[in-house]
Write a structure and sequence with these properties.
The chain is an alpha/beta fold. The protein has a domain of 226 residues: Vaccinia Virus protein VP39 (Rossmann fold, 3-Layer(aba) Sandwich). It has nine helices and eleven strands. The protein has a seven-stranded mixed beta sheet with strand order 3-2-1-4-7-9-8, with helices on both faces. It has a two-stranded antiparallel ribbon with strand order 5-6. It has a two-stranded antiparallel ribbon with strand order 10-11. The chain starts with 17 loop residues before the first strand and ends with a helix. 43% of the residues are buried.
Length: 349
């Protein structure tokens, strides 16, 4: 199944194992696991609007609308959550994004979306690891921004490794690009993939003189999908003189001086990374390279490899781009999940 797909026509076999998703947002990761054949039995999410979208599209068996700080302390979780094949999570990462304040925000409480509690965002990863220690799934997969490995943020990475080790897991990380994995979008993300130590012996290799890790091949070389393949005819060009002046003078691939995420995409390359920020007007949003307008809804959905019939609940572009910008592209997770199943989980049963 390619990037043009629908939920109603998808064949979710649910025969590869069980998954629980934390920081689930609208379910980008969930759809990837389902496409790979896994049964995603539930989710944890703090944003009521995102939870509404998740439940509408995925109808989870278990759903917990609360901060992970309280969810991790629950003593009433069903037995199924203590027998997971994969615990999945994408801790909110704006504190480490190269498009954010980075160090200025570290250690500070922040409210990054209406309806949510204030949180110290850079601690969320460690709350997630605490949950992994409690649930003890076979595999833990955690996604985060590339900026986590830039500058002083590397200290957090070392702590992540230490905490996974104490939780009973061998941990490795990969920097992966969605455009090499069947997604029409250049989106680099770091994935931490951890295997429970008591299950790891058959897979262990000596990585260097001091490091022992499970052997895992996560090389992806799918043909890139250029923007021209997802460009949709749009008769409603913007008839705005000021917008045209800004659009006309902006070169392809160059960020606007006033906003990092405002740029024209390249017609013959994959779409640039979709940011969660979007406003009406010229700023905050990707621009079409040949037509004086921003990308339309269908182009954003296709670039994210989301299903064309996904119900965003609130169908305005600000909300749609927020969901897509905060979600892992489903096909990205699908490719990872297939390799995890083939190389590890299928050999444990």
């Amino acid at each position: 199944m390619g990037y043009r797909w629908t939920l109603k026509d998808a064949n979710f076999t649910k025969d590869k194992g069980t998954v629980f998703s934390c920081f689930a947002c609208g379910g980008g990761s969930t759809m990837g696991y389902k496409l790979a054949g896994f049964d995603v039995i539930g989710c944890n999410e703090i944003d009521p609007k995102m939870m509404e979208a998740y439940k509408t599209n995925h109808n989870p068996k278990y759903s917990y609308l609360e901060p992970i700080q309280t969810f991790k302390l629950r003593k009433d979780l069903p037995k199924e959550l203590y027998n997971l094949d994969i615990l999945d999570g994408s801790p909110p990462c704006s504190s480490f994004s190269s498009n954010g304040n980075r160090k200025k925000d570290w250690g500070k409480k922040k409210k990054f979306r209406e309806g949510q509690a204030c949180q110290v965002l850079d601690d969320l990863f460690f709350h997630f690891i605490y949950l992994a220690k409690e649930l003890q799934p076979k595999v833990v997969i955690a996604e985060n921004v590339k900026g986590l490995f830039q500058g002083d943020a590397i200290k957090y990475v070392r702590q992540i490794y230490r905490e996974f080790d104490k939780a009973g897991y061998y941990c490795q990380h990969w920097l992966l690009d969605a455009s090499k994995m069947g997604v029409p979008q250049m989106r680099e993300r770091v994935f931490f993939i951890c295997i429970r130590k008591d299950l790891s012996k058959p897979f262990l290799i000596q990585k260097d003189l001091f490091t022992v890790v499970p052997k895992l091949d996560l090389v992806f070389n799918k043909k890139e999908i250029p923007f021209i393949e997802i460009s949709e005819n749009d008769k409603e060009f913007l008839n705005n003189t000021d917008f045209f002046k800004e659009w006309d003078k902006l070169e392809v691939g160059v960020s606007h001086i006033r906003n990092f995420s405002t740029k024209k995409v390249h017609i013959n390359k994959p779409c640039y990374t979709i940011s969660s920020q979007y406003r009406t007007g010229f700023h905050n949003g990707l621009l079409h390279p040949q037509e004086c307008r921003k990308l339309n809804k269908i182009e954003y959905i296709l670039a994210s490899s989301f299903p064309l019939d996904y119900n965003f609940i609130n169908e305005n572009m600000i909300n749609i781009v927020y969901v897509l910008g905060n979600s892992v592209p489903p096909l990205m997770i699908k490719e990872i999940a297939i390799k995890i199943y083939e190389q590890i989980i299928s050999k444990l049963t």
